[in-house]
Each structure stands twice: as C-alpha cells, then as structure tokens.
Amino acid sequence: MTVLKTSMRNFLAHKGRMALSAVAVLLSVAFVCGTLVFTDTMNATFDKLFASTAADVSVAPHKDDKAQETGKPQTVPASLEGRLAKVRGVAKVEPHATSQQLTVADSKNESISPDSGAPTVGTNWDESQKKSVEITTGHEPHGAGEAVLDADTADKHHLKAGDTLRVIAAPGDFTVKIVGIATYKTTNPGAAVVYFDTATAQAKLLGSAGEYSSFGLTAAQGTSNEQLKRNVTEALDGAAAYTVHTAAETKEENKKDLGSFLDVMKYALLGFAGIAVLVGVFLIVNTFSMLVAQRTREIGLMRAIGSSRPQILRSVLVEAVLLGITGSVLGIGGGVALAVGLMKLMGSMGMKLDTSELTIKAATPIVGLLIGVVVTLLSALLPAIKATRISPMSALRDAGNPADGKAGKVRAVIGLVLTAAGAAALLAAAGAKSASAGAGMLGLGVLLSLIGFVVVGPLLAGFVVRVLSAVVLRVFGSVGRLAERNALRNPRRTGATASALMIGLALVAGLSVVGSSMVASATDQLDKSVGADFIITADNAPLTPAAVKSIESAGHVAHFTHYTGVQAKVVTPDGKSVTDRLTAADPTYAEDLRIDAVQGKLAEAYGKDAMSVPEGFAKDHGVKLGDKLTVTMIGGREAKLTVNAITSDDTSFDKGAMYMNIATARSYLPADKMPLTGMMLAKADSGQAKEAAASLKAAVKDYPQIKVRDQADYKELIKGQVDQLLNMIYGLLALAIIVAVLGVVNTLALSVVERTREIGLLRAIGLSRRQMRRMIRLESVVIALFGALLGLGLGMAWGATSQKLLALQGLGVLDIPWPTIISVFAGSAVVGLLAALVPAFRAGRMNVLKAIATD
Predict the structure, then answer these.
(1) What distance, in Å, lies between the first and last C-alpha atoms of the chain?
(2) Whether 501 contacts 744, CB under 8 Å
(3) Mode of pairing for the β-strands spanning 120-124 and 133-138
(4) DSSP 185-213
C-alpha cells in the first residue's frame, strides 16, 4: 500500500510531465483499436448484406482461374431454368442477368461509375432484389428503355426519376430513362447499380435472350439448403459445368473476396500503428529516465530510510502502469472516434457504412489496454532497474553512476557491430541474383541497421551534433554554443530523442527513393521501348466493339495496333504443360513496343502460326529458336506454333510475355471465346501528331470510359499513381512523426525542469529572456536535424538497396528525390522550432531568484 501511495503521489506530482507520454500511448492504442473496430464493423455490415442477397442455393457458371477472359460475362443457358424447376425440393427459380462489364453515363456523357475502384453493376430487377433494396421513388422497370438507379449514385451525381442514362456494354450501347430510385436496406457496397427488366438485361448486357448469368433457387419447406444442393448437383450430372453453392457458401465466398481487401487494409494500418508504438517507446523511456534522474536524491533518501530495491522497482513500474492505463483508456475512446472517421471517409468514397452498426468486440478494448500497459511497462523497465541501482550515499552526495562510462562503451561496440551487420546485409541484398533471395536480406538489413543506429545513437550524437552546430548554431554566438553543450550534455538522451524522429523519416526517405526510382525507371523504359504515339485504354475494362470501330474512324493515323491476352495451354519440349497468357497483337506491335530479341526477330513472331517466348521461359523449358510448340487455346482448338523469336527479359514492359499475331488467335478461337481488345496503340502520320490526337479524342468523345494518352500523359499517369500511394503512406507515417515530435517536446520540457537552477544562474549573470528562449529552440532544432540526418541517410540506403532488387524486375534507374529529401530536412528544423515553443516559453518565464534557490 505504501508503494502504491508513493507511486500515486509521484504520478500526480508529475502529471504535466506524464501528459505527453500519455498522448503517445493514446495515439498508438487509438490506431490499433480504431483499425479493429473499423474492420469488425465492415465485416458485420457486409455479413448482413451478403445474408440478405444470397439465395438458398445458387447455380452459376463454373469458376476457373485459367478460363478464357473474353471481357464479356460468363453465362449459363436459359434452358437450364426448366430443368432446375423440376428438381426435388425447389420451390422457386429466379434467373439473374448481371454484368459488371459496362459503363453508365449521364445526359452530359459523364461517367457515373465509382472513382473508388468499386464496380458498376447492371442487373435485372426481380423479387430477390427486394431483400437488399427498396424502391423509395418511382417504380420498378417494366420494359425496354426503363431503369432503376441506386440512391447513393443518384445523390452523388444529382440524378432523379425522369433523367436519361446511356449504358455502354460489350453487346452495344443503349439509352434508358430512370423510372425509380432504390435505397439499400443495409449498406451500399460502393458500387453503382442499375436495374433493368429481365429481357433488357439479357439482350443488352449478356448479348442473348437465351442466356443468364446465374439462377437463384428457393428451397421448398422442409428441404434444407444442403439437401437442395445435393439434389441440384445430382440433377445436373455432377454439375461439372456449374458452380452450385448454398447461401452459407455464397456468403463465405463473398466474405473471402472482401476479406482479402480488408486484410490488406487491416494489417497495413496495424503496421503503421506498430511503428507509432515503437516511436512511443523512445518517448516513454526518455520520460522515465529523466524522471528517475531528477529524483536521484529522493530515491537515495528512500533507500536510506529502509526502502528495498524491489520496492523502488515496484514504485516506478506502478507509475508506468498508471500511465499505461490512463493512455490506453483514452486511446480506446479515441479508437472508436477514429473508426467513425474511417467510416465517414469510406462514405465519401461511395461505400455507405451506418455508424449505428458500429461493432466493438470485447477483445478490442482488452487488446488496446494490453498494448498500452505492456508497452509502457517494458519502456519503463530499464529506467526502473537503473533506479534500484542508485546507492543511497552516492545519491545523497549527487555522485554519478560509476558504471555509466563502461556501459556506454559496451553500447557503442554493440551498436557498431549491429550497424556493420546491417550494412553487410544491405550489400548482400543489392548484389542478389534473385528478388526472393534479396528480399530476405533486405528485410534483415533494414532491421539490423535500424537497431544499430538506435543503439549507436549516443556515440553518433557526439560527432554529428558538433558538425551540425558548427554549421547551424555557431552563427548565434554564445547562445548557440550553450545550445550545443546542452544537446551534448547527455548523448544517450539526445540519441533516444533523435531516434524516435529517425524511424519515421527513414521510412519516408526509403519510400521516396523507391517511388521516385519506379517513376524514373518506367519513364526511361517508356522512352526506350514505346514507339507508338498514343495509348488508348478503357477504365478497368476492355474496349467494346463499337468503341473500337469509332476509334478506327479517326484520321491522321498511320496505323492502329489491337492488343489483347489469350489464355492457352503450351506444351514445351521438356514435356511440361504450362497454362499461360499469350499476348495477341497486330504485327505493328513490333514497331509500337520495341522489345529486344536475344534470338531471331520479334517481327517474325507475328507471322502465320508463329510466336515468341521470353528468354527465361526458353531456358527453363529447353525451348530453341525454330521449335514448334503445341498451343491449345482455352475454349478453342490446338495449334502448332513456331518459335521465331526469343525476347529479352531486360524490360519492365510486357516482361515475360509470349507474343503471337492476333489473327492467329482468331483462327483457333470461336468468335464468342475471342477476348475483346484490351488496349489499342496508334501511330500518327508523319508530322500529324496534333491532328491525330484531336481526331482520336473526337472519336472517343461518346465513350467517357476511354482515355487517349500520348507518352507525356502516360508518364504523368504513372507518376500520379505512385504519388497517390506514397501520399497515403506518408499520411499514415505522420502518426509516428507526431509521436516523435511529442518526444522532443517532452524531453525539452523535462530538461528545462532538470536545469531550473542552471537557468536561474544564467539569467542572473545576464542572459535575457529572449536569449534563453532562443537557446532552448536552438537545442531543439539541432536534435531534430540530428534525427533527420540519421533517418534520411538510413532511408536513402534502404531505398537504394530496394531499387537494386527492383532492377531485377526491369526497373533499373536509381533516382534520389533530392527536392523531397531537402524539404524533409528543412522541415525537421521547423519541427524542432515548433516543438520548443512551450518549453522555451516556460524557461523564459522562470523567476530568477526562485530558480537559483531550487535544489
């Protein structure tokens, strides 16, 4: 009880100093709990949606990852409906005609498809739709030319009943009038959904009145879903051509598809939370180390009057538990708020999640509490152990710890060994011959070098801070020299404070180098490899036949190249059968994409019954120039194709591709199995690039999903995609940097308290308030720049090594984004200034006489 009272007294006495450490715990726990609450809510919400939409038993086309991807929906024959109706235990059969291969535009010809990556879905309206949505405005679609639109898409694009929509699908384009608005009863999964009558959906989406995309079966009373599935499978002779699922299986299948997305999001967010926790450890270690140092005399007195070492240890650890509990409880509440914020963010992207269905599992607050308390306890353990080693007599006479010097040397040696081992691992990764082997060494190198820099930080502080001070602080005269000495007074503390900032900035620098190198490599490959003037693609879909015809009508174009992918089974000379995707294109593709051939000529791969293989494939399977390979088109006939070229693997475009003439693919595949054109390339007439661009854009003006890009546009697209990903990662890393900044603030605040008497003496001998504030700010700036220098240097080493591994995949250009690196370094100085505002203000306000009188 005495230990608890003492701990409570000390905790409350230093509540202001503990506050920033509690904020670090709060942020870390909030990120973890917020992630768990958000993903649990998503899972629970979608469970309800999937349960409301799944039929008792569904019959759909057989799913095959190796099937021919034609760009058109897979279907089942409409005649199957009669057979299913006769199956024992079937009460009702509901046919579905659904497609995601469509684009929907409003009357201004602007796409209303989601920009979040969610699909646009066209489907027929039937009774089963009423399980998940209800028509809140207008009525059901009754015939051709009528459609119902989901409410969220209608609200986002300001559409209402009576407005016209244009639907662009593979079978052709058509227009409909909105006659109703449907509102989801549970949640909108983020898709844009348009409902048609069944006949229109069949003819316009699937291209045939004799096809459906699937059937939903309702079980008769007394028949279980499992029994009905067995009856259906038996009636369909084993259902080899179909996928037959119960409602539970359909729900699990949908959850699996969603789960992969949620898992990526969940573990990414938890990963960044882990980084924040790691950074918070430095803050808490520093806080308790300084509090123990400031209470050296007090601890000595306690030992002198009979307190044992275990009691001192428990006293410090109880303070840590109190800090952990306080920060964790606040963090749990903050996590719930963060989850709500994430749900609102998803709502702005089109996925409506109802906050009334917020799911907080019992495990979530327990996990948050455990993380907060355990991390705080472990962080406080070393300072607590150090407190128990304080000798009563040495403490009472303010003697230092005689073991400090020896411990510092041991630490320095360990740090240098770890850093050297990390550097060796990074060098091994850079020289790796395969990406898989190099990735393991890269991970090891990152871990060892990071730990090494953290451990060796105090040793580096003595050198680096002096160099930085010579450049940054000496211009401020005596005040700058005082700031330098303050930063060097306790190298271990300076090193720990800077290390917290170092971690976040190292990741920022490493990712910046990787991102910049990816863009530079892709740009370099584009310049070297792409001979076409224009690249024509559709958003997340192939080009429809009508769109292709319109594009081909453009003028000022020397030639067009059609490009698609064909699934085929290739029998190699070593007797192996490999199912792979062959690139089928017009012969002009050899001009539009300049891929080096190590044997033969790529242009000859586009001859009749000819093909090319990549050099890695040829080496693995013993393929030689002139060999005839047996190639069976999936869904088509067998062909004997002659290998007329072996292409280089040293490229990032079409790396590992096998090429053949698109006419060859058409000759061995029936028309309904031939994939739609995935992309078109265009070469302008000599000197007619501007005119060709204008003509092509005019040709696709009725197709909002199609983009015509020249090489400059394509480079900007690549850069934009990489920048978007990096900005998202930087935003998440900002949490770790915020925690690190709090560490700087806390260190300075405690340092000011620790140096109260010294500050009073400096003021007494003539240092002005302004000079005092400047001294604290300069000390903060040099610590922040020290952390930034270590972090940016370490991050650039990680990034350069990562680029060497990416070079194995064809991304061979190393590009250091110096503007970003310099901006981050300069920004660190600003961060240091901001972090010092409150501690500097407090130091400047101290009463001189009271400060001098302080023990």
Answers:
(1) 29
(2) yes
(3) unpaired
(4) SS-B-S-EEEEE-HHHIIIIIIS-TTEES
Residue 294 or 436, more confident: 436
Distance CA 799, CA 817 (A): 11
Residue 402 has pLDDT above 70, yes or no: no
**pLDDT (average), residues 731-747:** 80
For every residue of 301-362, which 3-state class applies, written as one string?
A: HHHHCCCCHHHHHHHHHHHHHHHHHHHHHHHHHHHHHHHHHHHHHHHHCCCECCHHHCCCCC
Amino acid type, 721: Q
Cα 292 to Cα 289, 465, 474, 601: the distances in Å are 5, 25, 33, 75
What backbone phi and psi angles, to 5 degrees, belong to 123?
Answer: -150, 165
Give the amino acid at 376. Answer: T
Q: What is the pLDDT of residue 496?
A: 84
Please give the helix or strand (H or E) that residue 611 lies within, else none: strand 610-614
Nearest Cα neighbor of 602 from 591, 397, 423 is: 591
Q: Is the dihedral of CA 119, 123, 127, 128 positive or negative?
A: negative
Closest CA to 28 of 323, 261, 318: 323
Contacts of 830 (CB under 8 A, 6+ apart): none
Secondary structure (3-state) at 113: coil
DSSP string, 384-448: HHHHHT--HHHHHTT---TTHHHHHHHHHHHHHHHHHHHHHHHHHHHT-SSHHHHHHHHHHHHHH
Question: For 322-345, what is the mean pLDDT?
Answer: 88
Per residue in 694-725, pLDDT (tens digit) is 999 999 999 999 999 999 998 998 888 888 88
Q: Which amino acid is at 434?
A: S
Integer Cα distance of 507 and 511 in angstroms: 6
Cβ-contact 132, 53 below 8 angstroms:
yes
Share of the chain above pLDDT 70, in %: 92
Residue 626: other Cβ atoms inside 10 A: 10
Q: Alpha-carbon distance 779 to 488, whole Å?
A: 10
Strands 90-96 and 214-219 turn out to be antiparallel
Residue 351 φ/ψ region, left for φ over 0, alpha for ψ in the -120 to 50 degree band, beta for the rest? beta
Contact, 752 vs 839, CB < 8 A? yes
- Across the strands, what pairs with 227? none
668 pLDDT more than 90: yes
Q: Reply yes or no on whether the pLDDT at 300 is more than 80.
A: no
Give pLDDT tens digits for 101-128: 899 999 999 999 887 777 899 999 998 8
Q: 463: which residues sit within 8 A by CB, 6+ positions away?
A: none
- pLDDT top residue among 661 and 312: 661
Measured CA to CA in angstroms, residue 833 lies from 240, 307, 777, 781 at distances of: 70, 42, 6, 6
Beta strands 192-196 and 120-124 are parallel
Nearest Cα to Cα of residue 791 among 505, 378, 557: 505
Distances (CA, A) of 251 to 73, 265, 440: 21, 21, 37
Secondary structure element (H or E) that encloses residue 639, with its range: strand 638-647
Residue 570 banded pLDDT, cuts 50, 70, 90 = very high
Backbone angles phi, psi at 753, to 5 degrees: -60, -45
